[in-house]
Amino acid sequence: MTVLLISACNTEEPAPTAPPKQKVVATVTHASEKKITDKKEFLGRFQAIEAVELRSRVTGYLRDIRFKDGDIVKKGEVLFIIDQRPFKIALDQERANLNAAKAQYDLTQKELKRTQRLLKSKAISQEEYDKRDQERRVAKARVNAAEQTVRRAQLDLEFTKIKSPITGKVGRYQISEGNLIKAEDDKLTKVVSVHPMHFYFELSEADFISYKKYRTEHDKQKESTNNISIKRLNNTETEFTGYIDFLNNEVNRSTGTIEARAVIDNKLGQLESGMFGRATLQMSDPYLALLLPETLITTDQSRKVVIVAEEGKAVAKPVVLGQLEENLVVIKSGLKKDDQVIAHALHKFRAGTAIDEVVADAPSDAQ
């Protein structure tokens, strides 16, 4: 029994062996290249270039409405007629007053000629002659005043026909026939132009600087600036094209943006003033860019980084991102074409992670 215990105590167990080190393999890809154009999207609103509220210049009763709500009207087309009878009577009265003034003026001229002959024969005094001449001058002034009154009455008669000052689409009438219209007071309707159309939107300060640089180069080369396309929010199929014709002269201090305006073709009348749209603005000429799938880009605090295999270890390269292009992200800077971008199991790789072997990914995965 004693012998057995001694033998058991002297038995030595083999020391545990460390597991073999797992080989770190990085599957890598390269950024694809494609010729692209920088573009930015902006939300904005369509607005008619011209919009006029029609009001009467004279007071009177509305007699006739010569359009249907929503009609396309031409410049100079009569839309409303105010009862013209009182204005015709007033014009006739003023013309009669003018004729009376002219008759009085003719009489004073004849009397002045007679006094001239009498003055030469010294039959009347110079004082009497001056008096006749003064009467002629007063009569002439009355004729001039009567002529102006006739013109005013003629204008008032013309103003009874309320015409459209622009070509465009007319809204609904606000006052029905038979109602009294007060001069410069009651709004009758509104006419807005249809073609072309304005589109207003806001540019950030950075976007404004980029676009201004791009446009300056094109202005030097006298190239077309027809570089904006817009789609309605509720219709992504129909696209409208145009160009920027105005940039405001200061940045809004509250929003940090600057107002921009585009001129848009609307010959078919598919756009209405007040509609919302989404504009795509060209910000650069075409250039060759590097692109990566969005899944290969990680975030390091406030930076965007791409993990690459370089000299046997993982390296985090900060990159500046551009726009999305067919589900790929444009890499503006920070990455080279021949960089080996780690394409799988990114959670296993941190900056400085040792890499034992690099394996090329299938080309289709990087597209």
Descriptive report:
Helix content is 26%, strand content 37%. The chain folds into 3 domains: 25-37 and 287-362, conserved putative lor/sdh protein from methanococcus maripaludis s2 fold, CATH 2.40.420.20; 39-49 and 197-282, Elongation Factor Tu (Ef-tu), domain 3, CATH 2.40.30.170; 84-159, Helix hairpin bin (Helix Hairpins, Orthogonal Bundle), CATH 1.10.287. The model is unreliable at 1-9 (pLDDT under 50). With 367 residues, it is of the alpha+beta class.
Structure in a nutshell:
With 367 residues, the chain is α+β, with helices and mostly antiparallel strands.
CATH topology descriptor of the largest domain: Elongation Factor Tu (Ef-tu), domain 3
Low-pLDDT parts are: 1-9
What is the structural class?
alpha+beta
Rounded to an integer in angstroms, the radius of gyration calculated over CA atoms is 43 Å
CATH homologous superfamily grouping of the largest domain:
Efflux pump adaptor protein, beta barrel domain
Largest sheet composition: 9 strands, mixed
Per CATH, the architecture of the largest domain is Beta Barrel
CATH class group of the largest domain:
Mainly Beta
Mean pLDDT: 86
Share of helical residues: 25-40%
Number of strands: 23
User: From N to C, what is the helix and strand string?
Assistant: HEEEEEEEHHEEEEEHEEEEEEEEEEE
